[in-house]
Amino acid sequence: MRRLKRILPADGLLQKSADVAVYECDGLPVYRARPLAVALPRTVAEVGRVLALCTEYDIPVVSRGAGTGLSGGALPHPRGIVLALSRLDRIVSIDPDNQVARVEPGVRNLAISEAARPFGLFYAPDPSSQIACTIGGNVAENAGGVHCLKYGLTTHNVLALKFFDSGGTLHEAGGPTGEAPLDLCALLTGSEGLLGVVVEITVRLRPRPPATVAWLAAFRSLQEAAASVREVISQGVIPAGLELMDGLALSAAQDYTGIPYPEGAAAVVLAEVDGDDLAVALDSERLRAVFTAQGAFAIERAARDEDRRRLWLGRKSAFPAVGRLAPDYYCMDGTIPRRSLVPVLTEIGALSRRYDLPVANVFHAGDGNLHPLILYDAAVPGQLERVEALGADILRLCLDCGGTISGEHGVGVEKLDGMCAQFTAAELAIFHALKSAFDPYHVLNPGKAVPTPARCVEPGGMHVHGGRLPFARLERF
Amino acid sequence: MRRLKRILPADGLLQKSADVAVYECDGLPVYRARPLAVALPRTVAEVGRVLALCTEYDIPVVSRGAGTGLSGGALPHPRGIVLALSRLDRIVSIDPDNQVARVEPGVRNLAISEAARPFGLFYAPDPSSQIACTIGGNVAENAGGVHCLKYGLTTHNVLALKFFDSGGTLHEAGGPTGEAPLDLCALLTGSEGLLGVVVEITVRLRPRPPATVAWLAAFRSLQEAAASVREVISQGVIPAGLELMDGLALSAAQDYTGIPYPEGAAAVVLAEVDGDDLAVALDSERLRAVFTAQGAFAIERAARDEDRRRLWLGRKSAFPAVGRLAPDYYCMDGTIPRRSLVPVLTEIGALSRRYDLPVANVFHAGDGNLHPLILYDAAVPGQLERVEALGADILRLCLDCGGTISGEHGVGVEKLDGMCAQFTAAELAIFHALKSAFDPYHVLNPGKAVPTPARCVEPGGMHVHGGRLPFARLERF
Fold this sequence. Notes:
Two copies of one chain form a homodimer.
Chain A: H1 2-7, E1 13-14, H2 17-21, E2 31-32, E3 37-39, H3 44-57, E4 61-64, E5 81-84, E6 91-95, E7 100-103, H4 109-116, E8 121-122, H5 135-141, H6 148-151, E9 158-164, E10 170-174, H7 184-188, E11 197-204, E12 206-207, E13 211-219, H8 222-234, E14 241-246, H9 247-257, E15 267-275, H10 277-293, E16 298-302, H11 305-316, H12 318-323, E17 328-331, E18 334-335, H13 341-355, E19 359-363, E20 369-370, E21 372-376, H14 383-400, H15 416-422, H16 425-438, H17 453-457, E22 473-474
Parallel strand pairs in A: 3-5, 4-5
Antiparallel strand pairs in A: 1-3, 2-22, 6-7, 7-11, 8-12, 9-10, 9-11, 13-15, 13-16, 14-15, 14-19, 17-21, 18-20, 19-21
Helix pairs in contact in A: 8-10, 8-13, 13-14
């Protein structure tokens, strides 16, 4: 610790209990752990020195951005330090000719679009935490968002990275449009802090679309709404966003925002199209035709910024709105092929009744990225266990139709058991070998994202979250 | 060999000299080597058995598709076998709802779009060899093409892979839209046969655009043409293709096709916009405005299929056309940021005069992906060496402005020395560690794509191709 202190600026090492407490958990506070210390470097060089020192002394390092992650990826290690990168927050350059921005990891997602606005450009991936979350965290988790249907996940918008390996050596990956035989840039993106510490990111910027129109279509059944999502894509329209809210989510959002949805709606689909005026007009008419043909009983259109914001408000506030329905809720995250939307949503409804736990669905339907919100009360003995079992059943449902256990929230500590279900032992062995290739001493975020072979052979089936974490102290929200 | 024969169908193992000769080289015939045998499995299971056997006996395995690669990636190993995957040519399924196709590696690139056509879909990446090249080879080399500016490289259009590791164990990577903490799918794509043998590929299909318009703009200087390319993108138009041909390429293409270009053109820019009718009309007008503002003295528009084909014919036949200008030509492949197009093209012109070797430029300008074609006569003593030196200077130019030594042709054996220039020793060490993670015994395509540390410290600077390959017999085209 003394040597760590020498490396860092005067206010760059937190060790007092009150200071460190803030870093005990990320956006999944069901897991908490107290680190030995929190390092807050101000420069890239300091990051390298911290890593070299921690590798020398075999001290686990957990990198962290804004701590908004939802799978416990930034949960501290009790024998390790948290490497908080929030002070590396420079926008190094905006290059409008090549439509790229070079930024440090602590820059907030939305700040990139704000800096690019004078050039008529924006950064497309927009996780719902985009006001707070950092681009470094987005890279670590391969974050998504409403716009990812049209513009891709974080990995599709990252062009190059500078990163330290665990020994503190700086590397560069990626480049303008060129290729290396092994795409380290794509490998690092989404690697949840296991392979390296990213200290500079070159992201793709895109021209701001001149026109944007949002649509809301209300349906009398969830199944009709889900079928219309599939049909929109089949018709060749790729909206900038294509979201679905079910009846429970609608009534919660309506109570929360005071903005009414069409009376009798069992589900609504929200779609936004952007581009040139004429293209938007054309796509809009195709959307209207699909929604009508699929049985929508009410269709609304919003073109002015103010009207669009009003239309989206319920969706954007759906999580806190649903949060008011019960003392606790648990947000699941998995993906399914679009063709499976109708049967999977039907089955989730059946599971909800069987477990006697309400489930609200508000999600990126166009991507097949489900976000079932399970409502419960952790104070009622046995409820958390039922939530876990229901969550595991939902993820199994995703896997059974060819989907994945994680959509855009990562694996972290939350889905270690799910990894055992999704991947074979041989595939997990490849993950471990890759980890060792970058970080032979397992200093970087140990215990996250990739389960040990031993964990996978233990009996007990798939847990969503809960007791089997080796070092986390489980506490209530 | 006896055991290999038992694994394969009766006609599945070639050992006779005449049969094996066909496989001595790929599309870069300056390198040739005779393998021990050529294995032609018919099923996925046979591929696995071949790999298990070769690993057991430590026999190098070089996978091969149609052999159209341009960097010697499928050059045989003289102590190894060629694993030709051309008979794995089934289109397993086309799923129009999810807009994906599952195909075996031996399926030709163009065959995917042909199979998808009845559903109104197509597969976007279009290397110029697309009639012949296979999707397996496209995945190995992360192939590009004219359409990649708008629709991405192969890696952006591959959703999932099934692959064998060197021991013959089958793995799956990727999925619908979901993520794994380590993106094996992106890592395998472009890995040039070093990590595994891909036996099934799930690719993204896209709706066929209802309208397509091609534009040709002629300029009195190469610099004006290059500047207009940059300006098109800056204006927010992303054409489906944005290509540049210089004066030498134009006169060669004109002689070859008989179709005249505007008199006095020092360079032309070809652009194609696709999408809905109205969007195409809008983009077209923006293109016309940019070209006019940038000094184009002649602008042509082609909307009918027949006219478009005519406009593109010169570009599509530019390589064979240029090939008639000299006994030999060497096609370079590197990338640069778009903002560097003007200075780099100017410098290539200066290098061409200094080395007294004509260079024709026909390339994916929108992507910054250069393809300088160096004309020479290998029969003239010393010319090949001058070509090598000029090629190396061009690649150094790419690196100096932040580009890469390989655009879409891969590294193979051709650019091993260039890798030493582009990457640090520490970065190459990561590549080697990744290779070992998948293929601990170095059975898969040994000696390709990633140079040994020893090679990089040898004196002699960067060679483009030539004498330093440990096992290749260098022969003339």
